[in-house]
Amino acid sequence: MSKTIGRNPQITMLGYTRVGKTSLLAAMHRWFEDTVEKSDLQLSPDYATVSILSDQLSRLEGLFEHIKVTEDKGIAPSQRQHTYNFGLGKRGEEPAFNLHFQDYPGEYLKESPETRERVADLVRSSVVVLITIDAAALMEENGIWHTSINQPLVISALFQEAYLRLEGPRLVLFTPVKCETYVHDEARAEELKRRLKEKYQSLLALFASERLRNDVAVVITPVETLGEIVFSHVSHMRPEESPPLFFFRKIGPDSVYRPRNGDQPLRYILRFLLSRAYAERREGFGPLNPVWRSLRDLFGMDQHLREAVESFARGNKADREFEIVQGEELLTIDS
Ligand SMILES: Nc1nc2c(ncn2[C@@H]2O[C@H](COP(=O)(O)OP(=O)(O)OP(=O)(O)O)[C@@H](O)[C@H]2O)c(=O)[nH]1
Ligand SMILES: [Mg+2]
Questions:
Q1: Distance 186 CA to ligand 2 centre (A)
Q2: Which CATH number describes the domain made up of 10-64+75-225+260-331?
Q3: What's the pTM value of the predicted model, to 2 decimals?
Q4: FRET label pair with 92: which of 69, 108, 255, 264, CA 20 to 30 Å apart?
Q5: Which atom in ligand 1 lies closest to the alpha carbon of residue 179?
Q6: Tens of pLDDT, residues 271-296
Q7: Which residues line ligand 1 (CB under 6 A)?
Q8: Under DSSP, is residue 111 helix (H, G, I), strand (E, B) or coil?
Q9: For residue 240, what pLDDT band results from cuts at 50, 70 and 90?
Q10: Is the predicted pLDDT of residue 1 greater than 50, yes or no?
C-alpha cells in the first residue's frame, strides 16, 4: 500500500451540454504534459484518463485543419459519467494523493430528476467545483443565448440545494471557455468579468450570503481551451427550438491548437487545498471531512511535497481576466 491517502479530493466539472467541460479537461491534461516539467511536481494521469483525453486532444487538434471552426465538430458529447484521475506528487516519486475530476454528460442537468440529483450529489461531495461557461454565448448577440446554452438558472438552483448544509470549505471556479476573443485586451477582459457577474448575480449573491461567505471562495479563471481562434459569427439555420450554431475561425493560416492558461484552475485548486490543510492544522474544522484531515497529515509529514505544491500554487494569476471574487482568506497560504 502506498502513502496514497484514503480520501482524495473530488472536483466536479459543472456545466450544460456542449459548453466545453471535456475540452477543458483535455486542455488541462495537455498543459500538464507540456509545462509541469518546469516545476518540482509530477502529475500522473491514470491509464484510462490518458487514453480518453489523448483521443479528445487529437480531435481538438484536428479542428485546426480548417479555417472555420464550428462547435458541432471536435469532441462528441460525453455518453456517461467518468472520473479522470490525476496523481500528484514530487517528481520521480509515487503520487502522494489523487485529484478526482468528475465529468458527466451536461444533459444530466435537464434529462430527469434522477440525473439532476446525481449531479447535485457530485457538487455536494466535491471540495472544488468548476462552473464551465461558454463565453461566446455569454458575450455575443447581447447574451441572448446565454440562458439556453449555459443554463445559469438550473446551475443556481443546483447550488441552492447542494450547499444547503455545507460541511467545510469549498472553492468555486468560474471557468469561461471559448473565450479567446475576449481576453487579449484589457477592456474586453473587464467586460467579460462584468457580464459574467451580471448574469450570475443571484448565484454570486448566494455564495456571498451570511451563511456561506466564510466557507466559499469564488474565483474567475478563464481558459482558452483551443487558443489561436476567434469568434466569427452566429448561424441561425437550425431547428427553431435549438440554439444557433456559433462559428469561430483561426487567427491565421498556420494557427494550431494551443490552449492557454489551462494551468490556472489547477494552481487555484492546489492553493486552496494547501491553505485549508494548514488551517485545519491550526484551527481544526471539527469532526468532519476526512479529505482535510488526510491533506493536513500529508502536508505536515512531507515537507518536500508541501514546498513543491506551494511554489506551484503561488504561480496563480489574479489580474486582467482573472479575479478572486470572494474568500481570499480561504486561499491564503500561511503555515
Ligand atoms: N471555439 C471553441 N470551441 C470549443 C472550445 N472548447 C470546446 N469547443 C467545442 O465545443 C464542443 C463541445 O465541447 P465539449 O468539451 O464536448 O463539451 P461538454 O461540456 O463536455 O459537453 P457534454 O459532454 O455534452 O456535456 C466541442 O466540439 C469543441 O470542439 C473553445 O475554447 N473554443
Ligand atoms: Mg463532455
A1: 30
A2: 3.40.50.300
A3: 0.95
A4: 264
A5: 31
A6: 999 999 998 888 876 656 788 888 88
A7: 15, 17-23, 63, 69, 71, 73-75, 77-78, 105-106, 177-178, 225-226, 229, 248
A8: helix
A9: low
A10: no
